[in-house]
Write a structure and sequence with these properties.
65% of the residues lie in helices and 0% in strands. The protein is an all-alpha fold. The chain has a domain of 34 residues. It is built from one helix and no strands.
Length: 51
């Protein structure tokens, strides 16, 4: 069987990379917001748990 994959041009590859970076940054910000909200809700003592 022949390989019938779609070939992206340089402009499409650049756009895909930019979207991937934007998604990664937004995901990182979301993680930070949840972490910050947790610390605000429970206070800084949440970080001093006994092991």
């Amino acid at each position: 069987m022949e390989d019938e994959r779609i070939q992206l041009n340089d402009k499409q590859k650049k756009a895909r990379r930019a979207r991937s970076i934007a998604i990664a940054v937004l995901l990182g910000l979301l993680v930070f917001v949840f972490y910050f909200a947790t610390v605000l809700k429970f206070g800084p003592a949440v970080l001093e748990r006994p092991l």
